[in-house]
Design goal:
This protein has helices at about 15-25, 45-50, 65-75, 90-100, 110-125, 130-145, 155-165, 170-180, 185-195, 200-210; strands at about 5-10, 30-35, 55-60, 80-85, 105, 130. The chain is an alpha/beta fold. It is elongated and about 55 Å long.
């Protein structure tokens, strides 16, 4: 029945991609396209009126700070789930998007099948990551939930501070400047943090911090 379909809104500044995305969504039996925006200034207002179940948002949507937009959407439309779309799977971008409150992250080369799977998954309040970055991120989630990764209590106060700054997408140089320590010292701490977490990337640090509630907890 139409009333049971997942209501999806699209926010993307590229007309060709947006139109292609709309066409694909209209072929999905469980999905109903309810609205679209091409730039950020209209995003919050339209979402607040339409109350979609899921929003697909371009990670570089023009006219707005997308990280702030995701936070605002979570405030204004709290039951709506957000999937960010990006051309690149840059770890800092994924980190910022996760911390802002998005549940999903897809590269724009995703298949229609994976897009549908992502929408259905986040609608159930579960994370969904593109297949190219899924293995490491989901592995970290699983280990954290099973208690197989070192707990938050094993990190020093300075390490917790650095973890938070890494989650804010700061580079080693920027962290060094913020904390009045050398870049080499920061990089040493980053290496130890990753070793303790059992991860190999900034994306892994973000996922661990997200699951364990370390972010902004020091």
């Amino acid at each position: 029945m139409e009333k049971h379909k997942i209501r999806v809104m699209v926010a993307d500044g590229q007309p060709i991609f947006r139109n292609g995305l709309k066409y694909i969504l209209k072929t999905m039996q469980q999905i109903r396209l309810v609205g679209e925006v091409a730039e950020g200034r209209k995003l919050i207002g339209l979402a607040s009126r339409l109350i979609p179940d899921v929003i697909l948002i371009d990670a570089l949507l023009p006219g707005i700070n997308n990280i702030e937009a995701i936070r605002e959407l979570n405030r204004c439309v709290p039951n709506c789930k957000i999937i960010a779309l990006s051309v690149h799977g840059h770890e800092n971008k994924i980190a910022s998007i996760l911390q802002a409150g998005a549940l999903g992250f897809l590269l724009k080369n995703t298949s229609s099948r994976e897009l549908e799977e992502a929408i259905l998954t986040v609608r159930q309040n579960k994370n969904y990551f593109h297949r190219e970055i899924r293995n490491e991120l989901m592995d970290i989630y699983t280990k954290c939930q099973a208690g197989d990764i070192s707990s938050f209590r094993t990190f020093t106060k300075l390490e917790r501070v650095i973890i938070n700054l890494m989650c804010d997408a700061l580079t080693s140089k920027e962290i060094a400047r913020r904390l009045y320590i050398s870049k080499r010292t920061v990089e040493g701490h980053r290496t130890r943090i990753m070793d303790k977490m059992g991860v190999r990337s900034i994306g892994g640090v973000i996922t661990y911090a997200h699951v364990k509630g370390i972010y902004s907890s020091f």
